[in-house]
Inverse folding.
């Protein structure tokens, strides 16, 4: 397990890698990502974050704080009503706005970890702002949370319509599994794998799902984590 010092170092590596990577995104790349975002409400930019640093950060959070993640579950409907898809996932809100958003609220080490992550999320939004504006438009950063999916966890097809004009900017990572997100594109679900260090930009009211997290033949426990920066128009 990593030490807190290593965790902090890798957290700053995450930010540094993003700063460097966005300077390599060309005007032509931006045009391509903007076009796909206009077409399907989603864009994935590969290799923005140092994936090794992100893996250390996520592993540390999992080891130290997974007990504080709140589990959310909704059963599947017998008639598979699209509006009420089931899901099972865990989530930690870095800026909890209600009691049900947080467990271990008085745990000091978790609070300090949350504060560090919250700060990192804000710094990350500053770094990413130019490309987010270019690709998706002028959204304002609101809050951050971390999703955690273990074996069999998933999110059924949904479109977050109740959230209004929200934009999610995500840093997904699959460990011991091949994970990703599917986006509805021309009435078909199109798979976007968790490419190493990728940045996913998910627009408002876009139908998407997270396929169940599967165990690989080697048997190691699968895990998918995803820091999500939430923006509003
Ligand atoms: Fe969603």
């Amino acid at each position: 397990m990593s030490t807190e010092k290593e965790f902090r170092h890798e957290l700053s590596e995450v930010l540094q890698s993003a700063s460097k990577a966005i300077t390599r995104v060309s005007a032509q790349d931006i045009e391509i990502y903007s076009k796909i975002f206009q077409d399907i409400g989603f864009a994935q930019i590969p290799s923005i974050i140092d994936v090794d640093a992100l893996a250390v950060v996520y592993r540390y959070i999992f080891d130290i704080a997974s007990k504080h993640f709140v589990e959310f579950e909704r059963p599947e409907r017998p008639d598979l009503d699209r509006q009420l898809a089931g899901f099972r996932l865990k989530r930690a809100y870095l800026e909890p706005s209600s009691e049900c958003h947080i467990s271990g609220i008085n745990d000091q080490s978790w609070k300090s970890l949350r504060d560090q992550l919250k700060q990192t999320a804000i710094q990350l939004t500053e770094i990413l702002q130019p490309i987010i504006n270019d690709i998706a438009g002028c959204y304002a950063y609101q809050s951050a949370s971390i999703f955690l999916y273990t074996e069999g966890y998933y999110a059924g097809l949904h479109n977050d319509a109740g959230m209004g004009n929200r934009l999610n900017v995500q840093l997904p990572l699959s460990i011991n599994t091949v994970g990703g997100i599917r986006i509805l594109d021309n009435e078909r679900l199109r798979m976007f794998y968790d490419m190493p260090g990728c940045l996913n930009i998910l627009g408002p009211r876009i139908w998407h799902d997270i396929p169940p997290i599967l165990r690989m033949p080697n048997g190691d426990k699968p895990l998918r984590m995803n820091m999500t920066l939430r923006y509003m128009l």
Notes: The longest strand covers residues 140-150. The pocket of fe (ii) ion is lined by residues 158, 160, 208 (CB under 6 Å). The mean pLDDT is 93.
